[in-house]
Amino acid sequence: MQPTGEISRRAFIQRGGAAALSTSMLGSLLAACGSDSGAKAGGGAMLKMTNDKIAWKDWFAAAGKAAKTAGAVGWNPVEYSDTTTYQAAIKTTGNTPKVTDMFSWWSGWLMKELVDAGMLADVSSIWQKNGSAYSAGLRDAFTFGGKQYGVPLNVAYWVTYYNMHTFEKHKLDVPKTWEEFTGVCDKLKAAGVTPLAATIDGRWPGFVYFQELLVRKDPALYTALVNGKAKYTDPGVADVMNLWGDMIKKGYFSDPSAVTIGSGANNFPQYFKQGKIAMVTWGGWFEPTLEAAGIKGGEDYGTFITPNVDASAGNNLIFEAGPWCVAARGKRREDALKATEWFASKAGQQKWIDVTGFTSARSDVPSSNPVDKGIDDAIKAGGHKLLNRYWEATPHDIVEVAVDQFCKFMLKPGDPAAFLQTIQKQADQSWASVS
Is 3 inside a domain boundary? Predict the structure, then answer.
């Protein structure tokens, strides 16, 4: 079973770091990633857990201290506020003595690049001890050449979050069809409420609504596109871009240059809490941020799976699995493997869920959030097919070009042909490099 968008295991020729780095920038990246020393705690050196999730700092720290207390090896977090810089840092230091001990990453093509470059430690033994508590599909997402190279850091479904008070105030029901969904947007707009949040902050979110609309209209085309079996210039893709453009022109979305979601600035929760923006389509890992802002699941916000644009599209849902990785060349690799084993254990996952409010990938660690339980029930009832998130599902040099083009389109929607031609040019080059 491979629920993550039928990720191909064919070799992808690595293209190196995200950008050419200046000498001064390279020096700062090496210093930040380096694992030469760790902060002392409990009589032993703490490992470094490097990540690009600056809002998760306290969570990583609490889990690291708990690991230490439990007799495992603990860790302290090292955060990057910018995803592009973070990716460059890991790729630049991955095969050097300056590599960090452990780090967060992405599944799919991004993970395969590091596996092919020999940067990730084999964690198959951890899966052998804990695998029965995780789904086979999740194991497959981290498996290359029959070996596992990461354990689940977070697992998230991409659904639409809505302000329950705003819906109640304007007498709106959760939409079940596309016509009902656009009707909700029209009523909110008429009442002076922005229906949907959108952002270009950090670049990467540019793909979010392209992905969602394509899956809701033609999931087979989405799967073909991310696997190089369809072109961005195909009529079906252009149709989705035109639909998206129409929604932007109707005022369904916030100003993407003014709203930040999931970043260090992160001003969306205040707009959401105040009822100025009613909905957002986003990953489940954002829920703890809402909770921290005093927006409670099941009381203040709820979720629904976006209705299909094409009613015959079937039940599909975007799925994201992020791995926790151990550096193959880390100076304290054995300690990092012990720390990772604790994190993947029932005790480790229980602590992680306690501090984050996330949904655990382990079947024996239930979520306490009623919204997550509702999502799980909806998936089970609907038999939804899980499709891997665009960011992980297709070669990343295509993604990098695509998110820039999508961001430009969000700012100035119009004829999508030029945007799609630019992405397809990169796609042609990338897929030609796959052997």
Answer: no
Tell the residue number behind the tokens 């210093």, with chain if given. Answer: 31
CA 70/CA 193 separation, integer angstroms:
49
**Model pTM above 0.85:** no
Distance CA 430, CA 398 (A): 7
Residues 293 and 182 in one domain: yes
* Domain span including residue 61: 23-154+321-373
Instruction: Give SS3 for 160.
Output: strand
My answer on whether 39 and 88 are in the same domain is: yes
Tokens linked to 145: 């050449």
Residues 206-256 pLDDT 10s:
999 999 999 999 999 999 999 999 999 999 999 999 999 999 999 999 999
**Cα end-to-end span (Å), the chain:** 24
3-state DSSP assignment of residue 354 = helix
In this structure, what token pair is assigned to residue 168? 């109640």
Report the CATH number at residue 253: 3.40.190.10
- Number of domains into which the chain is organized: 2
Secondary structure letter of residue 297 according to DSSP = B
